[in-house]
Write a structure and sequence with these properties.
Number of strands: 17
Largest sheet: 7 strands, mixed
CATH topology of the largest domain: Quinone Oxidoreductase, Chain A, domain 1
Number of helices: 11
Order of helices and strands: EEEHEEEHEEEHHEHEHEHEHEHEHEHE
Helix content: 25-40%
CATH class of the largest domain: Alpha Beta
Radius of gyration: 20 Å
Shape: globular
Distance between the termini: 13 Å
Length: 336
């Protein structure tokens, strides 16, 4: 099969030929139809986690068809459409697993990081990490939902904010354009925040009720004019902007961080003690949470904005993504 791999930490993405993988016990082989390109794939490319087994095939937003079952697999069948995201399996034995916290498994399988991912024509995946993909969604549309989609969907759900209240989406990008659609359909008053007026029409068309151009006005003052946001979702990696926007929360508001800034994010203790502000984060989701996200998208017509690329074009598309040139998600598709 053809695949794009990284031979060593910090090395280039390279198109190579590899043997077709064979599924082991409790694994399936997936003929890959589509795989999203995500900023988190940089973890494998640059070696940001210890113990990555190079050479490694990145890619953790994978959709395809099961074409082979390993020993002991039940509940899945050859020919079934499935997906696999960042959290590709858990051990069921460690303390977090025994408490039902599968995302925190100490022996977890990270797709495209601890095992080969979806920048390929085929891959293997553990059965407990599989997600059922409905026919209502194309493979290319479903792929980004396995990471960007479930991360934002879970963030909104975990904020526990009542419908009708104001939520702010800071960053109208790969995560933000999905978060706006989710929040609007969940019944929130949605305020989108970004720099420049060029994204205002898009934000409003996706369901935002108001757009704040942070380069032209004080976003905190604009939010507080409405009484403050019940929740703010920071969907970018600029730490100073995240730290500053906390002041736009209402009392008992929730600050949900989804981006991964290299710098620390600061919050004044008074906001925690006197105003009851909650700081939290959201990353990915379990297989059942991902299925719930995909079902919601099917029901409410939520779709990512994507640009499709071929397998051989992944290195170029990845470089464009790192420069912020994606609008808003690159998705590799295998033509069959």
């Amino acid at each position: 099969m053809r695949a794009v791999h990284v031979a060593q930490a910090g090395g280039p993405l390279e198109l190579v030929e590899k043997p077709l993988p064979v599924p082991g016990p409790n694994e399936v082989r997936i003929a890959v139809e589509a795989c999203g390109l995500c900023h988190s794939d940089t973890v494998a490319k640059e070696g940001y986690l210890p113990g990555i087994p190079y050479p490694i095939i990145p890619g953790h937003e994978v959709v395809g068809i099961i074409d082979q079952l390993g020993d002991g697999v039940t509940g899945w069948s050859i020919g079934q459409r499935v997906g696999v995201g960042w959290y590709g399996g858990y051990c069921s034995r460690c303390e977090p697993c025994r408490r039902g916290q599968f995302k925190r498994c100490r022996n977890r399988a990270l797709t495209g990081v601890t095992r080969d991912g979806g920048y390929a024509e085929a891959m293997t995946a553990r059965a407990e990490g599989l997600v059922a993909i409905p026919d209502a969604l194309s493979a290319a549309d479903a792929a980004p939902l396995l990471c960007a989609g479930v991360s934002t969907f879970n963030a909104l759900a975990r904020s526990k904010i009542r419908p009708g209240r104001t939520v702010a989406i800071q960053g109208v990008g790969g995560l933000g354009h999905l978060a706006i659609q989710f929040a609007a359909r969940m019944g929130y008053r949605v305020v989108a925040i970004d720099k420049g007026q060029e994204r205002a029409p898009l934000a409003l068309s996706l369901g935002a009720h108001q757009y704040i151009d942070a380069s032209a006005e004080d976003a905190v003052a604009a939010l507080q004019k409405r009484g403050g946001a019940a929740a703010i979702f920071a969907l970018h990696d600029h730490a100073p902007s995240i730290s500053a926007i906390v002041a736009g929360l209402a009392q008992d508001g929730v600050m949900m961080v989804l981006g991964v800034p290299e710098q620390p994010v600061f919050v004044h203790a008074r906001a925690l003690l006197e105003d009851g502000i909650v700081m939290a984060g959201s990353a990915g989701g379990t297989s059942i949470e991902t299925e719930e996200t995909i079902d919601f998208c099917s029901l409410w017509n939520v779709r990512p904005m994507i640009e499709q690329v071929a397998l051989a074009d992944i290195p170029t598309a990845f470089a464009r993504m790192k420069k912020g040139e994606a609008r808003f998600r690159f998705v590799m598709t295998n033509k069959r």
